[in-house]
Design brief:
- The radius of gyration is 20 Å and the shape is globular.
- The strands form 5 sheets. An 8-stranded parallel beta barrel has the order 2-3-4-5-6-8-10-12. A two-stranded antiparallel ribbon has the order 1-16. Strands 7-9 form a two-stranded parallel ribbon.
- The model has no long low-confidence stretch (mean pLDDT 96).
- It is α/β, with parallel strands linked by helices.
- Helix 7 packs parallel to helix 9, helix 8 packs antiparallel against helix 9 and helix 15 packs parallel to helix 17.
- The structure holds beta-D-fucopyranose.
- Beta-D-fucopyranose binds next to loops.
């Protein structure tokens, strides 16, 4: 059966600055926390570094050519804060502005709508030295940065995203396997509170411009956990903690319902983790948004017993995609949850979805990536169903345009529609690139 998507459906691909740009030491760019983190022995698998990555700093024309080949009508990328403001605040780096101007112009010339994220995990190192997100001053720093972006690119960007997956800051400050590599949950909880304030202030600032085209939202990933043995107290608790205390609940509740959830507050109390807040904070955080970006990769079944074994075997880096099971049907449930539990009545975009291949599988297997095609089809099946069930789902962005620097997993996890030859920076279309280009052109696919 042919699954046709609504007219004007957005088809895109996504990337992020630290993962593709490289040019880490060029034209006045400052260091980001990922540049520094990558220098810690063992922090990144096989010692991968983001210095050169896919060299998109120099290959932007080729990137846009690929977008045209794919037939996408939108491209999701992120700004590198330390390329724009090398010290995080103060002096603007004109070469950085020029780079993004060129990218945006090329996109527009080709009818591809920019979807730009202000912050995709790469804090300027200079700001980390002053406490980073742990310092409430970050709200001022971020607002200054947002103003530079909006002054320069405001209505040239169709979709603005304040933050991508705030949870990465929790991981980086609390669990240590993302930059900046700290292990202090109290600090992490405080950092997240400040991050949400940054979001709120940036949205308020955005509204003051009265843009005609530009819209603004946030991207929160949802890995919904389900108890493996319903009724089993241990499994039920595990799923609840993963969802409410360490997962999407810690963001969606303050963003859309206001304040922290009862579960989260109780957890803060019990563990002496209550973040410092000021009057008015929760009003600032809960700003009306124009859209919500959902990064969806999988649904997870928590079986406490099995988890204990997996934990032992867990590879460093990467995300939960090292779980063997695939639960694309969770997408439908997650979308309904956004509406039913969090009362979302704004357009929703799937801003990331994809599947990694391991570099070890070899180039040939990576190029013939049927597993990826099958997986994306299975997710799109439920996306289509969601639209039929009345969910206001407006678009889908596949992660990623090309293989890139996959954070702590370095260059070992390949997510691209294009295979990146890191030696030469050649990008070679995989089987999935051809398939996806047919989907975007037909606005649907044959199941
Ligand atoms: C998401 C990140 C993105 C990429 C994919 C695989 O969590 O937002 O940068 O790493 O996972």
């Amino acid at each position: 059966m042919f699954l046709k998507f609504p007219e004007n459906f957005t088809w895109g691909v996504a990337t992020a600055a630290a993962q593709i740009e490289g040019g880490a030491y060029e034209d006045g760019r400052g260091l980001s926390i990922w540049d520094v983190f990558a220098g810690i022995p063992g922090a990144i698998k096989n010692g991968g570094r983001p210095d050169k990555a896919c060299d998109s700093y120099h290959l932007v024309e080729r990137d846009v050519e690929m977008l045209r080949e794919l037939g996408v009508n939108s491209y999701r990328f992120s700004f590198s804060w330390s390329r724009i403001l090398p010290d995080g605040t103060g002096k603007v780096n004109e070469a950085g502005i020029a780079y993004y101007r060129k990218l945006i112009e090329l996109l527009k010339k080709n009818g591809i709508k920019p979807n730009a994220t202000m912050y995709h995990w790469d804090l300027p190192y200079q700001l980390q030295l002053q406490g980073g997100f742990g310092n409430r001053e970050i709200v001022k720093w971020f607002t200054e940065y947002a103003k530079v972006l909006l002054d320069n690119f405001g209505d040239d960007v169709d979709f603005w995203v304040t933050f991508n997956e705030p949870i990465a800051t929790y991981v980086g400050y609390g669990a240590g396997f993302f930059a900046p590599g700290l292990h202090n949950e109290k600090y992490a909880r405080q950092a997240l509170h400040h991050l949400l304030l940054c979001h709120g202030e940036a949205v308020k600032l955005f509204r003051s411009y009265n843009f005609k085209i530009a819209k603004i939202g946030i991207v929160v990933d949802i890995w919904r956990h389900y108890p493996g043995r319903p009724g089993n107290a241990e499994d039920e608790k595990m799923a609840r903690v993963s969802n409410e205390i360490r997962g999407y609940g810690m963001f969606l509740h303050p963003l859309f319902l206001g304040g922290y959830s009862k579960d989260l507050l109780a957890y803060f109390e019990e563990n002496d983790l209550m973040p410092k807040t000021e009057e008015g904070d929760f009003e600032t955080i809960k700003q009306p948004l124009d859209f919500y970006g959902l990064n969806f990769y999988n649904g997870l079944i928590d079986n406490a017993e099995k988890m204990r074994e997996m934990q032992k075997a867990r590879k460093e880096g990467g995300n939960y995609q090292d779980r063997p099971e695939s639960h694309p049907e969770a997408l439908l449930d997650v979308l309904h949850m956004l509406v039913d539990k969090y009362h979302l009545d704004i357009p929703i975009y799937i801003t990331e979805n994809g599947l990694p291949y391991d570099d070890n599988e070899g180039k040939e297997a990576n190029l013939q990536d049927d597993r990826r095609i099958d997986y994306v089809k299975s997710v799109l099946h439920f996306a289509h169903r969601a639209v039929e069930e009345g969910i206001n789902l407006r678009g889908y962005y596949l992660w990623s345009l090309m293989d890139n620097f996959e954070w702590s997993a370095g260059y070992c996890a390949r997510y691209g529609l294009y295979y990146t030859e890191y030696e030469t920076e050649e990008r070679i279309p995989k089987k999935s690139a051809k398939w996806y280009s047919e989907v975007t052109r037909a606005n649907g696919f044959e199941e």
